[in-house]
Amino acid sequence: MLFFGDRYGKGDSSYINLPMNEEEYKNFYEELINAEVVTLHEFEKKDIFEGCMPVEVMAKRGVDTLRYGPLKPVGFTDPRSGKRPYAIVQLRQDNAAKTLYNMVGFQTNLKYGEQKRVFSMIPGLNDAEFVKYGVMHRNTYINSTILLDETYRMRENKNIYFAGQITGIEGYVESISSGLVAGINMANQILGKDRLTFSNKNMIGALCKYISTENDRFQPMNSNFGILPKLEEKIKDKMERYEKLSDISLEILRDKIKDEEKSKIK
Predict the structure, then answer these.
(1) CA-to-CA distance for 189 and 102, rounded, in angstroms?
(2) pLDDT at res. 41
(3) What is the edge-to-edge ordering of all strands in the sheet holding 15-20?
(4) Where are the chain's structural domains?
(5) Which regions in the chain score pLDDT beneath 50?
(6) Which CATH number, 2.60.40.10, 3.40.50.170, 3.40.830.10, 3.50.50.60, labels domain 144-265?
(7) What is the rounded CA–CA span in Å between residue 236 and residue 256?
(8) Residue 89 belongs to what H/E stretch?
(9) pTM for this predicted structure
(10) For residue range 55-93, what is the model confidence (pLDDT) as tens digits?
(11) Environment class of 96 (CB within 10 Å of its CB; exposed 0-12, middle 13-18, buried 19+)
């Protein structure tokens, strides 16, 4: 039974959710881990960013790995049982006509025929038309930790700025934030103004610090609470802790904006 909705009932309910019971999930899992994959070239066999791992590789880590990852059922209720589903697949709307949907978290190296066979086992997709099959892409990024400062400017050549995934950040909003920081600071440099930096207690600043702090195991990173400094007070409840971190981050950003507005008035 398919249903529209977002995790914990938040958002605009633009996702289609496909709940799976234990039997459905385990049947799907067995076919997925044993399905045929394409033959990779040598350059494609290097380490892959954890957030973009092929779904079949992730599944081979353990039977429950997907249930704690892209098929996590937390925050949903299965209309068939009134309980939390064993696993859930989400489809994200990809066009305004609501005729094209993307399977969330299903990067894959499976052969096209195997994708059709295995993914059609997911309840609700048995008669689905697959207009585009999944493929893997590899992001190229520079070693920002030694090349860039916290404004995305090169340390050696201060007239060059970088932004986006090439800096080692992941995500659309994250790329926008890097472009914002780089763009403002480039303009300030041209106009002879001071640099604009952000506190690492704010998510924008935390990303800036992550990509500009030397790290021998540097991997692409998206925004997450793990890159923010720990709270001085101990809060056991995760959601309460995240809300506190968000409040601090937003307050810092508001103060930053106020300071910038005051400096313009002067």
Answers:
(1) 42
(2) 56
(3) 3-4, 15-20, 87-93, 101-103
(4) 3-119, 144-265
(5) none
(6) 3.50.50.60
(7) 29
(8) strand 87-93
(9) 0.60
(10) 998 999 999 999 999 999 988 888 778 889 999 999 988
(11) exposed
